[in-house]
């Protein structure tokens, strides 16, 4: 990403910071999170409920929680 910003030719002092986090989501929190994404929300309430039931059962099989790998890249620059 840093190279893309530098390549624009209008930015100086470009810095890039990368972060990786491994949060553990309990079943309830993860199911709530999934309900906020548009690929889920575009389905009918019946399909949504079936997906939530299946996801809940899967999370129960995983021990009631799931660990995610979240990667974030922050690019800061000053206009030249």
Outline of this structure?
The chain has four helices and four strands, in the order H-E-E-H-H-H-E-E.
Approximate strand percentage: 25-35%
The number of helices is 4
Largest sheet: 2 strands, antiparallel
Mean model confidence by pLDDT: 95
Tell how many strands the DSSP assignment holds.
4
- Which radius of gyration do the C-alpha atoms yield? 19 Å
| SSE string | HEEHHHEE
Number of domains: 1
Keywords:
elongated, 80 residues, alpha+beta
How would you sum up this structure, described in words?
The chain has 80 residues and is α+β, with helices and mostly antiparallel strands. 44% of the residues lie in helices and 34% in strands. A two-stranded antiparallel sheet has the order 1-4. The radius of gyration is 19 Å and the shape is elongated. The two termini are 18 Å apart. The mean pLDDT is 95.
Q: Helices, strands, pairings?
A:
Layout lengths: L1 H6 L3 E11 L2 E3 H8 L3 H4 L3 H17 L3 E3 L2 E10 L1
Antiparallel strand pairs: 1-4, 2-3
């Amino acid at each position: 990403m840093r190279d893309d910003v530098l390549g624009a030719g209008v930015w100086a002092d470009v810095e890039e910071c990368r972060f990786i986090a491994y949060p553990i989501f309990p079943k309830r929190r993860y199911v709530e999170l999934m309900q906020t994404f548009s690929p889920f929300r575009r389905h009918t309430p019946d399909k949504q409920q079936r997906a939530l039931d299946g996801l809940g059962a899967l999370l129960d099989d995983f021990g009631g929680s799931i660990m995610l790998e979240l990667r974030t890249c922050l690019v800061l620059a000053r206009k030249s």
